[in-house]
Input
Amino acid sequence: MEKKKILILGRLGMLGQELFRVFAADDGYAVTAWDKNDVDITDFVVLEGKITTLAPDIVINAAAYNAVDACEKDDTEFERALILNRDVPGFLAGLSVKRGFLLVHYSTDYVFDGALEKNKAETGCCGGGCCGGGSAQVGYNEEALPNPLSRYGESKYAGERAVQEQSKRYYLIRLSKLFGKPGKSPQAKQSFFSVMLGQTETKAEVQAVDDEKSCFTYAPDLAVATKELIESESDFGTYHLTNEGTVTWYEAVEELYWLAGKTTKVVAVGSETFPRPARRPACSVLLNTKRPKLRPYTAALKEFLAAIK
Ligand SMILES: NC(=O)c1ccc[n+]([C@@H]2O[C@H](COP(=O)([O-])OP(=O)(O)OC[C@H]3O[C@@H](n4cnc5c(N)ncnc54)[C@H](OP(=O)(O)O)[C@@H]3O)[C@@H](O)[C@H]2O)c1
Output
């Protein structure tokens, strides 16, 4: 059988490295993966030339601008965010029609305003999908209307619209709070769990925000779920793929320290304790109403801790 040609962009990122590992392990795929060293994906002339030569069946775009606070306070950074998060997916969407490939692109819970619990208290409906939207749970289903609070959220929402408007064959996957092994690029950031584990080396007590609620996403699980989505040949459109379990940052650190056997004390604080330039949604739970549920984040966290030992 002829192998499916797949191209992964953002190969050295937290998610990109896992996508590469998962697809490369399957003989049914011929995998090409690029990061900045291979091509600057904002150079559309070069990018189009390279993609045209490769002629992939599938392109997965795991490259993005993720500096939420930097782009909120700095106009030049916001320009960079718009280029990477809006213009690149828009360009790939157009090219997907011209060259006939399936496009997979990722977005975020930060496209939503997070007013779910407030809405529920005021009107009895969270406004995200609790009323007949596939789940009785408070949360955003795949069709809920975005309303970003930050410039980062705006840039990702603009990317979503560009993909939806221009591509015919696409999977747009929203996730939240990615964790896993840090990416391999020089700029790679550690995930929240790695940072909080690091703090136990020097602190007897840490503070963690207890008034922002959402779900975590383990990069290896998302990579597998992405492959399964592609192979399921499900309808094109928007999907929510996160691990199960709604938690605040505080609750997640409590779980992390318990699983890792750390005795560091965790103090719950309000988000005003850590003022940041960009506003975050208070409750941005993504409901997965279309695909098999991913395992609970606690099980994924156990595996992550074993993997980094
Ligand atoms: N991380 C999260 O918590 C989170 C939450 C929600 C949604 N998401 C979404 O999930 C997806 C994957 O995120 P991630 O955290 O895995 O991203 P990441 O670790 O930042 O990886 C992105 C990769 O793309 C590369 N890249 C950046 N600009 C490029 C360019 N011009 N040309 C070529 N490559 C370039 C980056 O290189 P450099 O590092 O050198 O810039 C990096 O290796 C993104 O769409 C992101 O928005 C992430």
Q: What stands out?
A: The first strand starts at residue 4 and ends at 9. The CA atoms of residues 106 and 173 lie 5 Å apart. The pocket of NAP is lined by residues 10, 12-16, 35-36, 40-42, 62-64, 66, 84, 106, 108, 175-178, 183, 185-188 (CB under 6 Å). Residues 4-307 form a domain with the Rossmann fold fold (CATH 3.40.50.720).
